[in-house]
Design a protein that fits this description.
Number of strands: 2
CATH topology: Sodium/glucose cotransporter
Shape: globular
CATH class: Mainly Alpha
Number of domains: 1
Largest sheet: 2 strands, antiparallel
Order of helices and strands: HHHHHHHHHEEHHHHHHHHHH
Amino acid sequence: MTGSQFLMLAAMCIYLIAMMWIGARLSKKNETVGDFYLGGRHLGPLVTAMSAEASDMSSYLLMGLPGLAYLSGMADVGWTVIGLACGTYLNWLLVAKKLRRYTERTNSITLPEFFSNRYGDQRHVLTGLAAVWIIIFFVPYTASGFAACGKLFNSLFGVDYHLAMIVSAVVIMFYTTSGGFLAASLTDFIQSIIMTVALLVVLLFGIWSAGGWDQVVANARSLPGYLSFTQSYDPASGAAKPYTALTVISTLAWGLGYFGMPHIQLRFMAIESEDKIKLSRRVATVWVVISMAVAVLIGLVGNAMTSAGVIKTLSGSASETVIVRISDVLSHYGVLAALVAGVVLSGILASTMSTSDSQLLAASSSVSNDILIRFLHAHIEEKKLLLISRISLLTIALIGVFLAWNPNSSVFGIVSFAWAGFGATFGPVMLLALFWRRSNKYGALAGMATGGVMIFIWKYCVRPLGGNFNIYELLPAFVMAILVNVIVSLLTPAPDAEVTKVFDEVKG
């Protein structure tokens, strides 16, 4: 190991130890399951905003988006970013305040529990189904984060992929299991700051290394379709490919996913006051727009650095390590530069860990609170339930490690599928639960089941047909789930008077 690599590794180790220390310090504040999963609803507006977006901006922010931009240019990644930015703002605008108010009124500490309480589902069938979907989609989502950590250490330090992945997973499991939601939120806030620093440092250094901004632009213009929003660049053929209107709509559909993201909605539920949501919305939206724009620019800069011979050509899933490669070049400019590069690489860890911790909490709450207590009606004392919650979290993390064992898996591809799953299963139910008085538990149940099943059908049966069927599975599944929810609600009995009474109270 070279001196620069040692300094980078030292900076990253300090970061990991700091995250574990935070988890240990906050462990004493988790006396109940409500504390463990929702932090007692005491999050401040800045922590709420930044932790929500850090938990959202997973490894695809520092690996997936730059890698996609590096390979194919602006169209694919550009429309995705536009969809995500719009989705972020609308989620905060439409869902945050109502969900905060509704979950407090119904005493709900998890999203599945809220669905049953919202519709007066005494048997908690909605809770059970929602919990199952959370486990199904969050386990591979978590696995993508572990895989990103493994790729990071393997590509830069030559550390065995599996060893690096396991160590990273252990750190995440430790501070999340110890400190629960408060630890996840505070570390996510810190990690969002580190991610911001990482993005800016890499961008500025990359532009300088590539020969200046004019050289970056000249390189992008030399690649057919690279800067176009109606064409994309095909690195295999070196030619431009058309980017149709249908593909644009399909890619924009990424924004629909926000309405169904449990790890983001938990932040809405946990903020200390609904009056603070406006400030949180502004902070979150500005940060998301800037961070994603910088991530895309890094992909373009990375391609220019390849053309200038600064970094080697990256193909396929290897393109997702473009920030790692730029950081490696930075580390050779002295001790301070190596330490800064270590901070940059910690930013990649931060983007991964900030999402994985929230996903683990949401998935484990589905097992302990939603399935055992609500759906199966088990009677477990508070301390034992807290222990079960932590054991569930560890078990789900271990399954994630198993699924991430293949080092060739694409981070962007895994995240894309899981994102679609949550968007289609929970997004339509969430919007109708908050805004349609006539919506009932039968429609919600049918819509939730339809959205989840459609994701698999479209992904593996319909989309491979190609042509007009080759669209992101979130869009058709989301539309179908809403239609089924509305139709079934209208064909079945109206909700009880008590259910509509609570709806009217919250609406007011």
